């Protein structure tokens, strides 16, 4: 029997959050949800045991129920140190025969099916397995007293350890028992270190890990994790898009009569009930009542709204000092206030359908651009607004994301920048397909970067 032991008793002190980092939100889910999912759907895993602090057992029970994690058979108390938590799982299974324990950090959510499978397969020949990757950096050993280099190990033989670490139950149990009998300080940091220290005669086989199998330890790691999810989303080939997931859905596209919105509307209408709203049919997103009335009409006709997409944008290149008050308010109202109006008016409909709100930002949100300061500022506001309401609406089941296309050939761009080399621009079809890919995913709170050639 292969048992995945997910170690989730850490407090996350280095992360600096109010809750353990395994329960931090990552694109609409707790980090640990991604981790459990990978083991739940690996065909070689028979059951899952989660080791966690008692105060979080209730939260974990809810997570397992909501996600139908049927392989989770035990949620047990963790210990003071990592090896104490491992030992609690060992004690739980010590009376069973022919058991393999596969220990994994709860905060390594990107563990792949391949690594899990390869780790379990290696147990057919070895009794202890580690997962590691080559180090790209030079590692130095320092003299702790003087803080000078003591030695420089040959990089060819160095690896960076990851998890899972897997063992025959009898081996890891014996190693732990010997460690507990020892009067010497325990210097190891993981279970393989323990086996190496107390059972040196046991070979520990190393399975090749992956760079993306990161451990989320610091806030910066969370930003990288979000980018990994974004990359996973945008690199899905349009050939693999499962349009059937959109069948009979009701999609409202503001700004759906031109540019990206029009292309999106044309593709979606083959599978969905699409409503394209713009000034051409009397809808001004600067006016909250216009937006409310338009959505109400769609809802009364269909009894549901599944997606609301805001493609409206306005750019006029001009120095701020040369803008009049009308120029300023128009850009702010169309690009940001209108987005707020759409979100506000959509809430109840999307709450009922557990749907998704999609806003459009711009690559200019990362840094203010000369001659379009207000456009850049409002697009930065869209990103912050998206991330904020994704958190606010999480418990209502609403997903909120922002699409961030690189330079795209639209009328608005041509009007402001003139004719540019085709090979440097995204097409509206590129952006529309990536948007649809986002629609059929379950992520929330992401800024989906769409770049040329990706």
Question: Short summary of the structure?
Answer:
By secondary structure, the chain is of the alpha/beta class. The two termini are 41 Å apart.
What name does CATH use for the topology of the largest domain? Answer: Spore Coat Polysaccharide Biosynthesis Protein SpsA, Chain A
Please report the total strand number as a whole number: 17
Low-confidence stretches: none
Proportion in β-strands: 15-25%
SS content category: alpha/beta
Query: How far is the first residue's CA from the last residue's CA?
Result: 41 Å
SSE order, as H and E? EEEHEHEHEHEEEEHHEHEHEHEHEHEHHE
Number of distinct helices: 13
Strand order of the largest sheet: 5-4-1-6-10-7-11
CATH class of the largest domain: Alpha Beta
Oligomer status: single chain
Q: Would you tell me the overall average pLDDT? A: 92
- Which CATH architecture of the largest domain is right? Alpha-Beta Complex
Largest sheet: 7 strands, mixed
CATH superfamily of the largest domain: Spore Coat Polysaccharide Biosynthesis Protein SpsA, Chain A
Radius of gyration: 26 Å
Question: How many structural units, i.e. domains?
Answer: 2
The best one-word shape is elongated
């Amino acid at each position: 029997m292969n048992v995945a032991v997910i170690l989730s008793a850490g407090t996350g002190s280095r992360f600096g959050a109010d809750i353990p980092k395994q329960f931090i939100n990552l694109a609409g889910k707790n980090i640990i949800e991604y981790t459990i999912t990978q083991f739940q759907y690996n065909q070689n895993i028979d059951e899952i045991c989660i080791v966690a602090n008692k105060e979080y057992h209730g939260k974990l029970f809810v997570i397992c129920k909501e996600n139908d994690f049927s392989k989770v058979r035990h949620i047990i108390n963790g210990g003071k140190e990592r090896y104490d938590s491992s030992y609690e799982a060992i004690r739980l299974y010590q009376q069973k025969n022919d058991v393999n324990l596969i220990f994994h950090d709860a905060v390594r959510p990107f563990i792949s099916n391949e690594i899990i499978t390869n780790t379990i397969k290696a147990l057919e020949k070895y009794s202890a397995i580690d997962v590691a990757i080559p180090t790209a950096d030079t590692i130095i050993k320092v003299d702790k007293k003087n803080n000078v280099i003591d030695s420089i190990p040959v990089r060819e033989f160095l690896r960076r350890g990851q998890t899972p670490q897997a063992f025959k139950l009898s081996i890891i149990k014996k190693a732990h028992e010997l460690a507990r009998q020892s009067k010497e300080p325990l210097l190891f940091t993981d279970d393989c270190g323990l086996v190496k220290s107390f059972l040196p005669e046991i070979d520990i086989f190393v399975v090749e890990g992956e760079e993306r199998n990161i451990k989320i330890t610091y806030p910066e790691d969370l930003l990288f994790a979000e980018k990994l999810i974004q990359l996973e989303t945008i690199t899905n080939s349009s050939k693999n898009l499962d349009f059937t997931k959109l069948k009979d859905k009701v999609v409202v596209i503001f700004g759906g009569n031109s540019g990206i919105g029009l292309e999106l509307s044309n593709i979606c209408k083959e599978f969905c009930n699409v409503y394209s709203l713009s000034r051409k049919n009397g809808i001004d997103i600067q006016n909250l009542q216009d937006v409310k009335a338009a959505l109400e009409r769609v809802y009364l006709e269909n009894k549901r709204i599944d997606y609301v997409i805001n493609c409206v944008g306005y750019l006029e290149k001009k120095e701020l000092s040369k803008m009049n008050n009308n120029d300023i308010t128009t850009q702010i109202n169309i690009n940001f206030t209108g987005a707020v109006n759409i979100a506000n008016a959509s809430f109840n409909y999307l709450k009922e359908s557990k749907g998704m709100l999609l806003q459009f930002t711009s690559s200019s949100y990362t840094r203010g651009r000369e001659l379009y300061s207000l456009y850049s500022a409002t697009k930065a506001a869209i990103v912050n607004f998206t991330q904020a309401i994704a958190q606010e609406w999480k418990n209502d089941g609403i997903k909120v994301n922002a699409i961030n296309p690189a330079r795209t050939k639209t009328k608005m761009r041509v009007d402001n920048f003139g004719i540019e080399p085709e090979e440097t621009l995204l097409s509206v079809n590129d952006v529309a397909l990536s948007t649809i890919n986002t629609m059929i995913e379950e992520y929330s709170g992401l800024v989906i970067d769409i770049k040329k050639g990706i």
